[in-house]
Amino acid sequence: QTHTSDNKKLFLATMKTALALSSMATALFSGTSSALATTTTPNLELKYFGARGAAEPARILLALADAKYTDTRFEIEPGTMKAPDFLVAKESGELVMNLDRAPVLLVDGTSLGQSKAIERYLAKQLGFMGQSDLEYAQIDCIVEHCRDVKDAQRRKGFSAFHRDKTDEEKATARREWFDTDLPAWLEKIEKAVQLTSGKDGYAFGMENSYVDVAIFSLLKDCGDTDMEDTLKAA
Ligand SMILES: N[C@@H](CCC(=O)N[C@@H](CS)C(=O)NCC(=O)O)C(=O)O
Description:
Elements: H1 4-14, H2 23-26, E1 44-49, H3 56-64, E2 70-74, H4 84-91, E3 104-107, E4 110-112, H5 115-125, H6 133-156, H7 167-196, H8 210-220, H9 224-233
Parallel strand pairs: 1-2
Antiparallel strand pairs: 1-3, 3-4
The structure holds glutathione.
The site of glutathione has 8 residues, from loops.
């Protein structure tokens, strides 16, 4: 079961929204990955829940490269949040490399855990990590900035998962985040990207890179409740 074209269609549709910073990511699917043409992609299987979550950037990288892979999804039962196939996979030892969690990527049968390690591996394999060790590090650097922003948002603690705050405290934290904190982060990232972008629409150099995927994930792959405010902050 491959979801490459569905993923691509979803992206093309959602990327139509105009954004300042994420105009970098608008061209995400218009280019091709140069390295892919010369690289033989191994047999890949990505195992994750039937949700975007921690696997989506990896799926995006695979879709961008038109790479074939098996997209195994542990479906979550509506209402109960239970995923019986996940429990089966966990019991059978399939998820040991991510400490009994998902995602796990199988590369010709070899198991790899940790979503960020999976993303880096795929980005490198599929030609989205630049042309040299230094470019790799520059790309990695900006991707880590995007991770810092996500971590900072989590620390702000206004999502439904945070039960230690009152609704009023959450509303205040939320307002601060979207009115002040997030715009300040994005302004800084935009300055960094101005140093690495080689062409309008690309955050690094002149073609799609892992940075475009990270920026897209940051701005366009957040939950529905945060989407409008995130886009406004951008
Ligand atoms: N740092 C790990 C975190 C993995 C993780 O926490 N996965 C969650 C889903 S996003 C999970 O499998 N939760 C189910 C469980 O722990 O039982 C990664 O990025 O891969």
